[in-house]
Amino acid sequence: xxxxxxxxxxxxxxxxxxxxxxxxxxxxxxxxxxxxxxxxxxxxxxxxxxxxxxxxxxxxxxxxxxxxxxxxxxxxxxxxxxxxxxxxxxxxxxxxxxxxxxxxxxxxxxxxxxxxxxxxxxxxxxxxxxxxxxxxxxxxxxxxxxxxxxxxxxxxxxxxxxxxxxxxxxxxxxxxxxxxxxxxxxxxxxxxxxxxxxxxxxxxxxxxxxxxxxxxxxxxxxxxxxxxxxxxxxxxxxxxxxxxxxxxxxx
Length: 251
What we know:
This protein is of the alpha/beta class. Helices cover 35% and strands 24% of the residues. The strands form two sheets. Strands 6-7-8-3-9-10 form a six-stranded mixed beta sheet, sandwiched between helices. Strands 2-1-4-5 form a four-stranded antiparallel beta sheet, covered by helices on one side. The chain starts with 17 loop residues before the first strand and ends with a helix.
């Protein structure tokens, strides 16, 4: 299985694709994120992990401009992140949703065509069909998504994100609800996307998936970063075991 054409590589010394510095988000009197800092380089997979309520999805929403930040800076290639969905797409950002965001009654192809908007029809169709073929969905282009099993619908959501050839891909719990074979295929696909030059930031509860895929991991607990580093570094950190991994192992 292949992936879309590799994205251009940055010049040596270029800033990270995504840089989050001192991010603080509050909802009323509740601080959801407190001075959170991390970055994602071109061609790198970085995972945000932590217990429920740690602030992972809030961080995603802040990057996408869906929540107002009290403090901090978010930059793409050293420039302030756009605040609109259209601006983010033009800047090379794509995101999958935890709840998929697919619409019953629409076909697989219609979903993947949607992000291409104003592109010429023939060009858009060619791009959509190519991505569907890349993800093993070519034979399902005309099928309605509500006729398909959940793991296949997850791949449709990923195809919809990849069709814009993003240089920053945000994946919100991509392994959720998948079996071991589908998870292994997903990990291989995400790695190929990153190897093509795309920066990947993912939120995920499936620890084995994260540990086998991520180049670096950022661990959140109660809205603060409690650890960061390689999977080996994070697994060896007692604070992580207490806050997250130990809870996961006991469940």
